[in-house]
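Whiteboard transcription, Tuesday session. T.W. wrote the structure tokens on the left side:
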């Protein structure tokens, strides 16, 4: 069974930084895409950043220039470096993995709170 475990969330002041990590475990038939999503209270879950097996990345406009996604394939880990955090970045952050055979897996989330 595939599991994704996020870590690194917490409380930070506006302008600060956090680094989220997501470790995948279990039998995975290749890792195609890994990404980070977030969901603020009362809002829909939205894509934050994604990284493909090729290394190509994509970002939501709201985080471009502030957040950086990276991955370590050997460790089955994806990271999200978040700089210049804003109160509107406050949300539960979720890791998602799409395997080579098209299965989608989600972590349980880690809370990021940015105070003004």
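and on the right, the sequence the group agreed on:
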């Amino acid at each position: 069974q595939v599991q994704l475990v996020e870590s690194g969330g917490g409380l930070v002041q506006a302008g600060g930084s956090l680094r989220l990590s997501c470790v995948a475990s279990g039998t995975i038939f290749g890792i195609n895409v890994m990404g980070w999503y977030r969901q603020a209270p009362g809002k829909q879950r939205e894509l934050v950043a994604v990284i493909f097996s090729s290394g190509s990345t994509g970002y939501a406009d709201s985080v471009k220039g502030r957040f950086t996604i990276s991955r370590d394939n050997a460790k089955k880990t994806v990271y999200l470096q978040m700089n210049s955090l804003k109160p509107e970045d406050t949300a539960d952050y979720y890791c998602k993995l799409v395997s080579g055979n098209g299965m989608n897996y989600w972590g349980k989330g880690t809370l990021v709170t940015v105070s003004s």
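Someone added at the bottom: The two ends are 40 Å apart (CA to CA).
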